[in-house]
Write a structure and sequence with these properties.
Elements: H1 18-21, H2 23-35, E1 39-43, E2 52-58, E3 61-67, E4 73-77, E5 92-94, E6 98-99, E7 106-107, E8 113-115, E9 131-137, E10 140-144, H3 152-156, E11 172-181, H4 185-192, H5 198-201, H6 203-208, E12 215-217, E13 224-228, E14 239-243, E15 247-252, E16 255-263, E17 269-277, H7 284-309, H8 325-337
Antiparallel strand pairs: 1-10, 2-3, 2-5, 3-4, 4-9, 6-7, 7-8, 9-10, 11-17, 12-13, 13-14, 14-15, 15-16, 16-17
Length: 342
């Protein structure tokens, strides 16, 4: 095809539809994409005191992160080695001891078995909880399931300076929203990574900012990018960012929103947005209301796209050379992570 200048253009194709709908491909993605990455699962304020814990499900692996009695942060698979019972219930709470909720096996804060309650025989060695690395960066709790992955700060590479100007540690948690969206995790990522859809999907956002000059700044490291959109007057939105595979952020007036979409199978995600603001921030409710309107519009279009991806009427598409280069980079990352899929 020719562009509007008459030159020939070799369009880049999207990922084929099977990457968004095939449970076998999702199974192949789980380890190289999610186990080998540092995944943002919560915040340090949620585990402020000894015994406090939070849980999460990382692409099918249930885990929990707990503040130890000595102040350290440890994480484990939330799976008892006896018969796969949970150590803590889903959500958050405080647990003075680590005792399986199913049969009462007890473990110390390092995950070592202390007592197999009324088992009737001596338990063989090695029946301990399986540890997961947990590390904190600027108040955010990350976990990594693969011990071969580098430490968090090394893995983040050149990304931290991007957030250096924002006083994240001074912001205070205000609100969390959670949506179960019927789409593949890549369907939502595709949407987040381009501004092409903003004028048609987000009319209020378009009035708020200059959407036609939305830009995504790519880097040598393909795992992250920053989005900028020129504001109009006192715009709510102007800067966004993304880091592989499912971490994103929005800069707000006197605040910050953390966005993550965690897969709950091949065709569902939990879309989680946490809002933080400075102590003297004003007009918070209207800022959150506007942001939630945008998030709801994104969830609605991602849901609709997933329905169409699953309809049998679509195989592969083409990417806009003006707007969708970030998707080409993202799709290459996906393909390189799971090279056995043709």
């Amino acid at each position: 095809m020719r562009d509007h200048y008459g030159a020939y253009v070799n369009f880049v194709e999207t990922l084929p539809v099977k990457w968004y709908t095939d449970p076998a491909i999702f199974e192949l993605e789980r380890h190289p994409v999610f186990a080998c990455s540092w995944i943002h699962i919560g915040f340090e304020y949620e585990i402020a005191n000894a015994g406090d814990y939070i849980t999460e499900n990382i692409a099918g692996w249930p885990i929990f992160v707990r503040r130890g009695e000595n102040g350290d942060v440890r994480a484990f698979h939330n799976v008892c080695p006896h018969r796969a019972g949970p150590i803590v219930w889903d959500g958050s709470g405080c647990s003075a001891n680590l005792v399986c909720r199913y049969h009462g096996w007890a473990f110390n804060s390092e995950g070592t078995l202390l007592n197999a309650r009324d088992f009737g025989a001596e338990v063989s060695e090695g029946m301990n909880l399986t540890a997961v690395r947990a590390q904190v960066w600027r108040g955010m709790v990350f976990v990594c399931l693969d011990p071969a992955t580098s430490e968090l700060i090394e893995w983040l590479a050149e990304f931290p300076p991007t957030l250096a100007e924002f006083p994240l540690e001074d912001y205070v948690f205000h609100t969390r929203s959670v949506r179960r969206v019927a789409c593949n995790w890549k369907t939502y990522a595709d949407n987040f990574l381009e501004g092409y859809h903003v004028p048609t999907v987000h009319p209020a956002m378009t009035r708020d900012s200059d959407a036609m000059n939305y830009k995504v700044i790519l880097n040598e490291d393909p795992r992250w990018n920053v989005h900028v959109m020129p504001p109009r007057d006192t715009s709510t939105f102007s800067v966004f960012g993304w880091f592989w595979p499912t971490f994103a952020f929005d800069v707000l007036p006197q605040g910050f929103a953390y966005e993550r979409w965690l897969p709950r199978g091949v065709g569902h995600i939990d879309l989680i947005v946490d809002y933080f603001f400075s102590a003297d921030a004003t007009d918070i409710d209207s800022i959150i209301s506007f942001s939630e309107e945008i998030v709801e519009e994104d969830a609605k279009i991602a849901n609709a796209v997933q329905v169409n991806l699953s309809s049998g009427m679509y195989t592969t598409g083409i990417l806009s050379p003006k707007w969708e280069d970030p998707l080409a980079v993202f799709h290459a990352l996906v393909r390189n992570s799971v090279p056995q899929v043709q």
